[in-house]
Design brief:
Elements: H1 12-64, E1 85-87, E2 90-94, E3 97-100, E4 105-110, E5 116-121, E6 124-129, E7 132-140, E8 143-156, E9 162-172
Antiparallel strand pairs: 1-4, 2-3, 4-5, 5-6, 7-8, 8-9
């Protein structure tokens, strides 16, 4: 009688080597996926910050371009940074002179957690944007009709990574 010997199976050592190789490949895939997800979350927060700062910039530019350098109340042209600005807008011209609104407009940082850009006019406060960590205004003594504005937005991603975005711009005031 003939015996059939079949040695085509895998040994325990071969199975363990296969499992180790598979785990190394899966660890690599997991690392790449984690890095990609973190990058996606940070980019998403950065885009949100850019949109918030752009919204802030557009709101301030639309109001401040109409303000004259003489109508800015609390940011003198002395090269110093200030954290808020109060000004008046023109309401018309009578006999060649500008009539200014009796109510002031103010931009400042405040609100919930002190991270909102707020616009205060005639006793009404409106939130313009969120996540504002720094708001500064400056007029240079050499050019008092130009207003420099610094905005910094800061927010954490869902993974807890802090994201910061800066936006600096100038506004030409009426003379």
């Amino acid at each position: 009688m003939r015996k059939i010997v079949n040695n085509s199976g895998t040994s325990l050592v071969e199975a363990l080597v296969s499992v180790v190789i598979f785990l190394m490949i899966m660890t690599g895939f997991y690392s790449v996926a984690t890095v990609g997800d973190n990058s996606f979350q940070v980019n998403r927060v950065q885009i949100e910050l850019q949109q918030e700062l752009r919204k802030s910039m557009e709101a301030m530019i639309s109001d401040l371009r109409m303000a004259g350098s003489a109508s800015v109340i609390d940011v003198p042209a002395n090269d110093t940074w200030y954290t808020s600005i109060t000004f008046r807008k023109p309401v018309g011209i009578v006999a060649g002179s500008i009539n200014w609104d009796s109510n002031t407009i103010q931009f400042l940082r405040g609100g919930t957690g002190g991270v909102q850009l707020q616009r205060v006019y005639n006793g009404t406060t409106r939130v313009v944007s969120q996540y504002i960590s720094t708001l500064q205004f400056r007029r240079l003594s050499a050019d008092p009709d130009r207003l420099e504005v610094q905005l910094v937005g800061q927010r954490n991603s869902t993974k807890g990574v802090p994201v910061t975005y800066n936006l600096d711009f100038d506004i030409q005031l009426r003379n």
